Structure formats: structure tokens, C-alpha cells
Amino acid sequence: MTKVLITGGGGFIGQKLARRLAADGSLRGRQITAMTLIDLAEPKAPEAPFPVRTLAADISDASAVAQAYEGGQDVIFHLAAVVSGAAEADFDLGMRVNLDGTLNIFQAARRQGDSPVLVYSSSCAVHGGEAPDPVTDGVELNPQTSYGTQKAIGELLLNDMSRKGFLDGRGLRLPTISIRPGRPNAAASSFMSSIFREPLQGEPANCPVSRDYPVWHLPPRMIVEHLLHAATIDGADFGPNRNINLPGRTDTVGEMVDAMTRVAGPEPAKLITWNADPVIEKIVMGWRQRLLPEKAVRLGFRAPDSFEDSVRWFLEDDHRDVAQS
Amino acid sequence: MTKVLITGGGGFIGQKLARRLAADGSLRGRQITAMTLIDLAEPKAPEAPFPVRTLAADISDASAVAQAYEGGQDVIFHLAAVVSGAAEADFDLGMRVNLDGTLNIFQAARRQGDSPVLVYSSSCAVHGGEAPDPVTDGVELNPQTSYGTQKAIGELLLNDMSRKGFLDGRGLRLPTISIRPGRPNAAASSFMSSIFREPLQGEPANCPVSRDYPVWHLPPRMIVEHLLHAATIDGADFGPNRNINLPGRTDTVGEMVDAMTRVAGPEPAKLITWNADPVIEKIVMGWRQRLLPEKAVRLGFRAPDSFEDSVRWFLEDDHRDVAQS
Fold it and tell me: In this protein, which residues make up the domain named Ketoreductase (chains A, B) (predicted)?
């Protein structure tokens, strides 16, 4: 008997995770008896063998968060966030959602008094500035964006509140998700999906960085796997730091385009234009794209074998023809 | 023409800093034209060649902070905090003062629109957990106390708000201050001063850890020097990370007692009792007491030569006989 809450439940990861949990019917070896999805706009509920509640709620509103916790939650996946480009453009918005909102989610978990499992989606955007290249475990977080800063603050709160026994936190620094389905968004990393997604669906896309720009990436299927694995393993196994660099894979944009061509033929790559965008370049150059996540590998998180798989999985899971069928 | 604000202005460092600025009459090569001291209880105003305003204010109250900024501030020393033992005992109090209060101070500086210099007192308590021993620059902050967590969050905010040009931040991770004047307080590190201060004034004191416990320490005179140096150097010299490990000195409690004996004779050491306190031990064992602060040394911050100096300076500056004269 376990109840699950997903914030950002209307996002593509939230939706994939919800569908997967509905298909599994259980989590941590226990039958799921209820699931709550919250997002700014009311999320779509998946077909499920248990009741699914959907709420339109702003996590920066503590009373809306209290409503999402009504009846108690056993496992919380906190995915909701204002993305990097938007948090950079509007500092106060990022602070309100990514800091105040995250604290609302954590405090509501604490208020339950039973230390629920809380999986927190942090980001590799916490790395930058004076961090070495490659980034090893134990490197000081020196984010060069407000988004990365707010995610790093959430990590510190998650760790301290786990130490205090208020919640049982597990923080994952997600690599760039590629190939992300849907439409381009305000994330500075949006192009890292759109230059594959749009051409694979017959549409043009622009790449604002050069072919030799490296990307630290992970496909949506493995993100969902990692979130479930994080919820399942013993929180104490994380040790004194509940936040980890998640495995991913580094390929240059050019190598990823070549992988797409090997899977889908030469036509998609012809739809990519290569016009530099200095604003995007400045943000993404501040990130780290090579990481050595040894602790996460010890904890059983695995790295992807190739970007070809990511292209195949996009075609299987998220291509317009599949998604609309 | 420069105006100075000191939060925690009633504390012993705030008072020493205020007296020093009053004696200097200038900061960053400019004449001081006004100084504001705020603290929970109205701070004592030093004799000064410029007007000194004193305010009783809780920094977690944004309107009180706005009052402290009235007329504009050019250099802010943010020293106010709930100390480690108190923040550990009362999580919400620590969050309110050390996180919300710090954010109020930073946001008020931002609201000025002229990016004032802001010196932030962080703490070596940000280090612990998975951090290596000794702590080098660039090590992930993994605090094992709520105080250290809240200080680390302040650092991230300081850095991001400096990057955005909202303020010109300089964050200093202060070593344990020894010999701190006054009375024992709720800091878990309180004994690191009291076992010298009380015996040097003819009173008994208990040491809750063993003689071989190492302490990363700095005397009050050098703390004031470091705060002034931090305010004076160019903010850009800090690079992408505005927060630094400050130089200090590692001696075991036993070595420090021996140094006291060399300066003040054998009597004070006889007034120390050695009854272990597991609660204090658990907190201070989570800290790091050996650091290699290379960046700070490059920036011109210097390490103390001996603990003997600290004992001498206590006798000159803070001994009851001096303080009451």
C-alpha cells in the first residue's frame, strides 16, 4: 500500500513516470493505492489500476501544496521547476518556484511526521564556474545560472532535512534530457533535443552552437528508470550526501547528429541549420558536459550505451506518428 | 564618502569591527560618513567621527531590514546569525534568521540598484560529511548541521546575486573564533574559547572533547582584518566563486592549552576540567578542522603565526581587567 505524488506531473517526464507507475501498479515492492499529479495546468491522468488525482496548483502556494499532500504521501517525485532560460530571465520567478516552491514541498513532507521518500530532480547545471573538467564526485557546486543555484539550494535543504529525519531524500543531478519529446521550451538546452526531434519529424531546426560542442545527455526512458531506482534503493546507502551526479553520456553535437543519421538515414541531418546564438552559447558554455559519476554507478545507476538507442527510443515512444496513434 | 551597515552589530565581532571603522574613519579609501549597526537588541554605538545609528531589528523582518538600508548603504557587513547549537536545536528559527534573514539583507542590497559591496560571514561549518581531510579549495559543501546548511545556501545566493550584478558579494568561511570574549554561548564551538577565556580570568571551564581534538581557529583581531580586507579588494578578483575558505591555523586543544601556559603561566590550565559531552562531540566531529585555503592566500588573506599571539591579544584586548578599564 503506497501513495505517490508527482510534482510537475504534467511535464513529459512526469507523464512518462505516471504511465510507468500505472503500468507497474507497484513501487518499492508495494501496491500503489493512489497517485496525485500536480502541475500549473491540470495534468492528464493515465489509465491506472488505482485512483489518480490531478490538481492544477502552483507549488509556490503552500496551501495548494498542502492540498496535494492530503491523505498522506509515501513517495514524492519532485520534478516541478522553472527551467533554466526562464529562471535566468526572471530571477524572482525562479526564486519563487524553484526555492520557495521546493521548500513548500519539503516542509509538507516534513509535516507528515513519517519521513516519506522524496526523489528530487536536481540538474547538472549545479556545476560550472571553478569546477574542474571533467566533474568528479565531491566537486564544489559553483553554478553560473540562477536555475543551477536554486537547484543547488534545494539539494542542501534535501540533505539537511534527510539528516534531521524530516524526509528520506534522494537528489539526482539529471543530465540534459535528449531526445525530449514535445515542443521547444525556454530551457537554454532546448536545442539539444530540438535538433533531433524536429528533423526526425520532417521539420527544420537550428543548432545555436558548433558541431564540436559536447553534450552530457540521457534519454527519457533512462531518466524514468533512474527516478524509480532512486525511489527504490535504501536512502542510507547515499551516505552523508543525498545528492549525486547521475550517469549520462558525453557526445559532441556532431557525433549525435551522426548517430541520428546511422539510425534514421541522411535526410533528418539536412534539416538542421547552424546559426550561432551568443545568448544560448554563454549559458551552456557555463555548464559542465563531462562528468565521472562514480558514486551513482556504485549505487546501481547505469550509463547509456549509445545515442543511437536514444534515437530509436524516441522513434518508438515519442515520434508524432506514435504519440498520435 | 561611504556608508556602512553592520548586521549582528551588537555581537563581539560587530562591535570590534565598528570600533575599528570608527578609529580608521575610512573604508576602501573613502571617508565614512555614516554607520548603522543592527542587532536583536540595540547595539552599543562606538565613539566615532561620523554619525552612528543603532537599531534593534530582527533581520527576518523585511520591513526592519528596509529601515536599516534607509538612505542607502555602500558597504554591508552581514554578520548576524543564529549560531550552530541554536540552529540545530530549533530548525525553524535557523531557517528564518539564517536563510530568510540573509535573503532579506541581500534583496535590500539589490533593491538599491547600485550593487553595494556585501561581506558575508559564512563558516567552516559548511564543510563535513563526504568532504576530504584536509579540505582543499573546490571541495563540495556537505554540511552536517543545519547552521552549516543555511550558511552554504547564503553562499550560493551571494554568488548568484553577484553574478547578476545585484550586489558585489564576498563570502568568508570563518574558522572557529578563538579566543572569543564574553560569555559562553549556544555555539557548539563555545568551549574552543571558554577553556582559555575563563581560566585566563581565574574561572573554571570544562572541555567536552579530548586534548587531541584539532581546532581550525583564528583570533578576533585577524577576523576583523579579514573582514576589512574582503571589503577592500576588487570583487572581480574572487572569480566565478565569491566564497572562500579563510586562512586559519590548526592546533589540537592540548597544543592550545600548552601555548596558553607558555604565555600566562601554569595556573590557568589547572582550572580546566575534561568531562566529555557526547552531544557537543557529535556536532564538532562533523566539522573539518584542517583546511588548505590557497585561493584566500592568493587574495592576500594571511594565516596566524601562533596561538600564543591569540592568547596575548586576548589579554590586551578582551581580558576583564582591560574591558572594564
Answer: 2-219
